[in-house]
Design brief:
135 residues, single chain
């Protein structure tokens, strides 16, 4: 499992130069942003059930796309290991978010930017998230 976690971390950090412009890089980078936004929203009290439901649907769709991309990049991992890999990666992002919140509070600029991303995804009626990567 450590090999898989290291592979995911390596893939996400190196996707820019290694696969610039590729679908896999875009999906993984977008998933990182949504993982951050999800963690911030939970920790900083985004409680609108409707928005949370819409965000969750889009998050799950993107997670499935990321699993497909990872399966192509790391072909020897079975789906349960891919799911665990994504969960482990989210745990790491959640720990980083917690540290930033402890340092800046929920009013900090990086946290506010993540909350804007959360709202943007939750309120976007278009289900195509990849086109929204720049937000």
């Amino acid at each position: 499992m450590r090999r898989a976690a290291a592979a995911f971390a390596g893939v996400t950090m190196l996707t820019g130069p290694a696969w610039a412009g590729s679908d896999a890089a875009t999906v993984l980078a977008t998933l990182d942003k949504l993982m951050t936004a999800r963690s911030v929203a939970v920790r900083c009290g985004r409680s609108d059930a409707t928005a949370a439901g819409l965000f969750q649907q889009k998050y799950e769709l993107l997670t499935e796309r990321a699993m497909t991309a990872l399966k192509i990049l790391i072909s020897d991992l079975a789906p349960p290991h891919l799911e665990k890999l994504i969960e482990t990666h989210f745990g790491e992002i959640d720990r980083r978010v917690s540290a930033v919140i402890a340092q800046e509070s929920c009013d900090g600029p990086r946290i506010q930017q993540a909350l804007q991303k959360y709202d943007s995804v939750a309120n976007n009626t278009d289900t195509e998230l990849i086109a929204d990567i720049q937000n």
